[in-house]
């Protein structure tokens, strides 16, 4: 039986960065990164929008607020050092009518509290930045928002991890555990410490270790429509005023690293974890569990999940999705947006006791394992500082074990 000091499950952006950080801190340790697919980053990490968020959406008591601002800077620095494309085009947040102006004010307050650069501007100033933009009286401009190519960045992260000495094992799905032994599709591993960064499957793996009792993953499908307009048709990203009660930011215009535009995303509830197509990757047990969780939210949630689901399902209709984006800018027409991009699936955590979507990062663990249960948007932006935080929590578990030889308590749950 092979052994490893650390086993990290899931070679997405979080898993790769966590494995690299563990290796930097423990040079003599064997760090093994296992991935069930044939390549790293085939799910959310390689299918996300590529937007590096600035960090003004989140309140000061959240992990997202703590890591987004620093993650934005660190990711841009990393891309510059590695010669990877960064489109530093910024972002406009626009209002449709007077009722949304107080939310603009709240976003500005949050930015100021977090030390994030965010500029209040009027309609004329907004049009000087983006001639096609539509807004009511005022808008906000985020100069540090940028876009990168997630596939290229993931490739660089993996190269760096392997250069550090992280061992990457592909086609190696986690299938269970027996004490300190991790069972995989390619054989058993004796594991000193396990870090679970398995995204869509994180809750299932966590339950094998006695965690995630109150949490379940609910998958949401994100789709973008790509424009056939030439590069430069839009100068900056354009976002609507968000509904701060849910974790989705609404249909927006994104400018990619090559200067082209796309609109979206959807946030359509899926009926199993990897439902990229209508029947692709169907698993009956996942279908039953996710359908049950969804129905519980429909009838008993403290927010209108039914209305959210209906609104998102309408976005499968291409003209409707285009009409939502047309509220943000002039000259957006259905004939310009005929090509759907690859779907991505967001692993959204649900608190089944509270019947609520968990909006912040969430970790559970002890002196044997740590589980990243919720690393939703802006997880891509936060990947570098968040991975350092995860490794701090791992080392806190070690410290407690040394201080309390009779057995350490579980690490503090963070939500």
Topology:
Layout: E1 2-9, H1 13-25, E2 31-34, H2 44-47, E3 51-52, H3 63-81, E4 86-87, E5 91-94, H4 101-114, E6 119-122, H5 123-129, E7 138-142, E8 146-148, H6 150-164, E9 167-169, E10 174-178, E11 181-184, E12 187-196, H7 202-208, E13 215-222, E14 225-227, E15 237-240, E16 252-255, E17 261-264, E18 268-269, H8 284-300, H9 305-314, H10 318-325, E19 337-340, E20 344-351, E21 356-357, E22 362-365, E23 369-374, H11 379-403, E24 411-414
Parallel strand pairs: 1-2, 1-12, 2-9, 5-15, 12-23
Antiparallel strand pairs: 3-8, 4-8, 5-7, 6-7, 10-11, 11-12, 13-18, 13-20, 14-17, 14-19, 16-17, 20-21, 22-23, 22-24
Helix pairs in contact: 1-6, 1-11, 3-11
Shape: globular
Number of helices, counting only DSSP H or I runs of 4 residues or more = 11
Give the low-pLDDT segments. Answer: 401-415
Residue-averaged pLDDT, rounded? 93
Our measurement of the CA-to-CA distance between the termini, rounded to an integer number of angstroms, reads 36 Å
Specify the structural class.
alpha+beta
Gyration radius over CA: 21 Å
Tell me how many strands there are.
24
Residues in helices, as a percent range? 25-40%
- Characterize the biggest β-sheet: 9 strands, mixed
Strand content: 25-35%
Q: Can you offer a commentary on this structure?
A:
The structure is a single chain. With 415 residues, the protein is α+β, with helices and mostly antiparallel strands. Helices cover 33% and strands 26% of the residues. The chain contains 11 helices and 24 strands. The strands form 5 sheets. Strands 1, 2, 9, 10, 11, 12, 22, 23 and 24 form a 9-stranded mixed β-sheet that branches. A 4-stranded mixed β-sheet has the order 6-7-5-15. Strands 18-13-20-21 form a 4-stranded antiparallel β-sheet. A hairpin with a 2-residue loop joins strand 11 and strand 12. The two termini are 36 Å apart. The C terminus is likely disordered.
């Amino acid at each position: 039986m092979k052994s490893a000091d650390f086993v990290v499950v899931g070679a997405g952006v979080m898993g790769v960065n966590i494995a690299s950080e563990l290796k930097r801190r423990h040079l003599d340790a064997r760090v093994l990164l296992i991935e069930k697919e044939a390549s790293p980053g085939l799910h959310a990490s390689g299918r996300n929008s590529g937007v590096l968020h600035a960090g003004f959406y989140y309140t000061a008591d959240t992990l997202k607020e703590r890591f987004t601002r620093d993650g934005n800077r660190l990711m841009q620095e990393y891309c510059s050092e590695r010669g990877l494309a960064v489109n530093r085009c910024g972002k406009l947040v626009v209002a449709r009518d007077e009722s949304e102006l107080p939310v603009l004010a709240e976003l500005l307050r949050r930015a100021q509290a977090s030390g994030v650069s965010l500029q209040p501007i009027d309609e004329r100033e907004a049009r000087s930045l983006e001639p096609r933009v539509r807004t009511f009286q005022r808008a906000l401009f985020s100069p540090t928002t940028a876009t990168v190519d997630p596939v290229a960045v993931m490739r660089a992260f993996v190269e760096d991890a392997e250069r550090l000495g992280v061992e990457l094992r592909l086609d190696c799905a986690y299938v269970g555990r027996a004490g300190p032994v991790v069972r995989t599709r390619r054989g058993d591993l004796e594991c000193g410490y396990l870090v679970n960064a398995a995204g869509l499957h994180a809750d299932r793996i966590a339950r094998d270790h006695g965690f995630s009792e109150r949490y379940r993953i609910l998958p949401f499908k994100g789709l973008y429509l790509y424009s056939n307009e030439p590069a430069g048709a839009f100068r900056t990203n354009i976002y609507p005023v968000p509904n701060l009660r849910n974790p989705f930011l609404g249909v927006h215009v994104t400018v990619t690293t090559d200067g082209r535009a796309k609109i979206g995303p959807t946030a359509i509830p899926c009926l199993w974890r990897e439902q990229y197509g209508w029947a692709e990757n169907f698993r009956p047990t996942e279908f039953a569990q996710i359908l049950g969780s969804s129905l519980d939210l429909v009838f008993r949630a403290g927010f209108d999940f039914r209305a959210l689901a209906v609104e998102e399902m309408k976005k499968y209709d291409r003209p409707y999705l285009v009409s939502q984006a047309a509220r943000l800018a002039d000259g957006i027409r259905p004939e310009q947006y005929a090509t759907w991009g690859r779907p991505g699936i967001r692993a959204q955590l649900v608190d089944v006791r509270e019947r609520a979507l968990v909006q912040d990062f969430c970790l559970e663990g002890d002196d044997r394992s740590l589980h990243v249960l919720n690393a939703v948007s802006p997880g891509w932006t936060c990947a570098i500082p968040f991975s350092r935080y995860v490794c701090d929590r791992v080392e806190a578990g070690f410290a407690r074990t040394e201080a309390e030889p009779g057995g350490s308590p579980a690490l503090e749950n963070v939500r």
